[in-house]
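Supplementary notes for students who missed Thursday's class. We covered one full example, reproduced here. Read the sequence, then the structure, then the short commentary at the end.
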Amino acid sequence: METSKKIIWMRDALKNLKEFPEEVKDGIGYSLYQAQKGFVPRNAKPLKGKAFKSMVMEIVSDFDTNTYRAIYTVKLGEAVYVLHCFQKKSKFGRKTPKKEIALIKQRLCEAIQHSR
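Structure (token representation):
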């Protein structure tokens, strides 16, 4: 029998995802399903930054000239923790804005506490 990790949504991550366009929600939803099954989705990559040490992944979805991201980790217990979902609004470069990185760090700490 196939096993699957449960998804734990941190704070407003699910609410934010629900505000994305249907095509984006479908793609991110399928990618999270793959993560639940133990696979690395094709559109996921490690989130860069020393604080994350390849513990945090980001799903990137481009749609209608906009970029949407879902940030998650599978490294805590038997769950996929979705830390944050947001639309990247910065027009300069590919870096994740500092405000978003700070929020992700905070939620990762909360997820670590939750998993204990």
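Commentary. The two ends are 27 Å apart (CA to CA). DSSP finds three helices and five strands in the chain. If anything here is unclear, bring it to office hours.
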